[in-house]
Amino acid sequence: MQHANYLPATELLAQFRTGTLDPADYLETLIEAAHRQQETVNCAASLHLDAARAMALEARRRYAEGTARPLEGVPVIIKEETSVKGWPRPLASLVYRDKIATENHPIVDKLLEAGAIPYFQASNPEFCVLGHTWSKLYGVTGNPWATAYSCGGSSGGSGAALAAGVAPLATGSDMAGSIRLPASLCGVYGYKPPFGRLACAPGDEYMTQAVEGPMTRTFDDLVLMQNVLGGPHPNSYTTLPFTPLPTEYGDLKGMRIAYSPAFGHPALADDIRSNMMAALDGLRERGAVIEEVTLNWDLEEINNVLLEGLRALFVDEFMRDIPRAEAHKLNSYTADLYEKAGGPRASIMPSAALGQRLQREMQDKVWGKGYSAFICASMLTTDLAANQDPVAEPMLDINGHQIDAYLGWCLTPPFNLLNRYPVMAVPTGLSELGVPTGMQIVANAYDDETVFRVGANHARAGTSKLFIERFPTMGPAA
């Protein structure tokens, strides 16, 4: 079977039910892919095969007995940051290389309860504070479409693993674009739900800029996974009630959608823009009325304010817990944050004020004008080295513009300030470098279904062809 390891979860479940595919046999197919990709892509933090094989045999038994659960026998990629009891959880750091998770993250519990098989732990950058995926502990994770280029971060290992065909579903987390950046760069779907839609880890209740979310290769799998992950968990007191998303969506006839390619930023790469415009034409063919709006947002201000808020809520306190004697083990990008943590106290208040300002402008120019959704690109360029170091090289040249190398190329942070907005990253094609491009579909606060309706129509329009006609090579760019 051509591309057997790229079957969607929805197709796997159908074949498991009819008996045309065996969960235990299929797991072995993916394990082979998992070992194979490590030679070039390097997105595995660890593999957990004995337990997975036992779960696959349990899935076989359940299908035979007619007691299969919603994700019975489907292998899943777990971001290293996402706790699985008994698995390593060093956060890609030599400082914590011996740390073992003592309990499951709530979304892991939900996956296990649904019959999924977590077996592949995906790499992330140290402390998940970089838009690429490399560390002293795990090395450099490349992009399966073109390994010299970035797979994004911090859920880059999850995005790369999906693109490498090691499983159809993956977990990610997003506090400045960490789901949406790797989803776009790896050609997959990623969903940043509004805060409260998924249960957070105990202790993260005030980290409203950061959420967990699903990543998949197909839209239908994204619906499937989100419906499993959504809703309350006994260990979380901030989770909202959840009504499962529809699995079928009508067209977009009469829906008004606003777009701003890059919030007025002049450095947007031509190939990202052209792929996005083709995707918008696909939505027009599905009935949408799409119009450009002017949002001249100061992305440097947005990025700086978001980072200050993250420092105030999480990063500075975390860094202060690292003994000075251990600081030499840190990567350049975390060592930089370590030094900043010893300076003036950061504040969350600028984030709250700027988020309110952005919401007022969205209300004035988008939601209040009758638009149901908003679309923009995910990033300014795909010309990003897999091992890009924003400390060693603090500026990037993008289309003749000097851009901050840390977050300046990202178009995702505004929606971490507007953290009640649901946002889906969807693939739009390949750049001239052979790296996938993507765009973000946004709706107003807690309007998840609108985002999924637009995402469904984007998928049905079929403009990207990724994982349909085009598949990764696992090697350098052609």
TrEMBL record:
It comes from the Bacteria. GO terms for molecular function: catalytic activity. Pfam families: Amidase (PF01425). Residues 26-451 form the Amidase domain. Belongs to the amidase family. This is Amidase.
